[in-house]
Specification:
The protein is of the alpha/beta class. Helix content is 25%, strand content 34%. It contains 6 helices and 17 strands. Strands 1-16-17-15-12-9-10-11 form an 8-stranded mixed sheet, sandwiched between helices. Strands 2-3-4-5-6 form a 5-stranded mixed sheet, with no helix packed on it. Strands 7-8 form a two-stranded antiparallel sheet. α1 packs parallel to α2 and α5 runs parallel beside α6. It is globular, with a radius of gyration of 19 Å. The two termini are 23 Å apart.
């Protein structure tokens, strides 16, 4: 497991009964987490510092119950990176803090390649890129990032996160279906040193196209391999809500990248809690190239 344990502006205070109590900067939130199937050591709802609780509806979905006024959005920092936090529908905040472990790994790879080849920026393609955590991290280490997501609002948030982190250039923002964009890049002959993807479990395209990860992920990774340059750096797959086991992700990378000399690894991602345990937060697979 890779544990994102370097945060100063975020921490998990306590967990139990399907909920996690967490601090984002000065704001304390209580929200659901499907991995938390154990009993709490104390009454999480009784915490006097809670600003908002996400309550699920019996009819599906849910909403935030505010116990005290908080800003519509605020900023947290991870080292030299800054991100907007905003409580949204379906319990999300616009940031997945466990991904900091991957940010650190990718930045080290990018900075190593840049030291070997100064003046030749690493080109990164970030697919299903959401609010740009990985895009900002890679660009901060000097990469040229193409950030692709179908949701205009999330792409706009990514741009704001980049500017908050002092990045005024180095990221190209694309609002498009990821599969369609990759096929267009293949036809155009555009190539990348690295590919990142965080695909959803299910999705629908603007024309009713259906995405189901267990049916489509292998073919998609195989297609994305065609945009890698002759001497690629890495290929990263994240799986948060899909339930894919780390070894499944590793096998996909190994088979889809068989024409490259890739060294593949896979692992759980986790966050430490003040209870002395580690909360699992999905899985990743990483292929690096010689």
């Amino acid at each position: 497991m890779k544990v994102a344990d370097k945060w100063k502006d975020y921490k998990i205070i306590a967990t139990g009964d399907g909920m996690k109590l967490e601090r984002w900067g000065d704001v304390v939130l209580l929200r659901p987490d499907p991995q938390v199937i154990w009993r709490p050591s104390r009454d999480l709802y009784a915490c006097k510092d809670i600003s908002a609780v996400y309550r699920r509806s019996a009819k599906g979905g849910g909403g935030w119950e505010y116990r005290r006024p908080i800003p519509d959005e605020w900023t947290v920092s991870y080292g030299d990176l800054n991100f907007i936090v905003k409580p949204m529908g379906f319990k999300h905040t616009g940031l997945f803090p466990e991904q900091a472990a991957n940010w650190d790994s990718m930045r080290a790879l990018i900075e190593g390649r840049s030291a070997e080849n100064p003046g030749s920026p690493v080109k990164v393609l970030n697919l299903f890129a959401y609010t740009g955590g990985a895009s900002v991290a890679c660009a901060k280490s000097g990469a040229q990032v193409t950030h692709v997501d179908a949701a205009k609002g999330m792409v706009e948030r990514a741009g704001r996160n980049a500017r908050l982190s002092g990045i005024e250039s180095g990221i190209r923002y694309i609002i498009d279906d990821c599969f369609k964009f990759v096929k267009k890049e293949i036809r155009r002959g555009n190539r990348y040193d690295a590919v990142i993807m965080d695909p959803p479990s299910y999705g629908r395209g603007p024309n009713g196209e259906m995405w189901k990860i267990e049916d489509d992920i292998f073919d998609f990774v195989t297609t994305c391999a065609q945009v890698l340059c002759e001497n690629p750096l890495f290929f990263l797959i994240n799986s948060y809500t899909t339930g894919l086991q780390p070894t499944v992700i590793k096998n996909i990378l190994t088979l889809a990248l068989k024409d490259f000399k890739a060294e593949t690894s896979s692992y759980e991602l986790g966050l430490p809690t003040d209870e002395g345990i580690c909360l699992p937060c999905g899985a990743s697979g990483l292929a690096t190239f010689g």
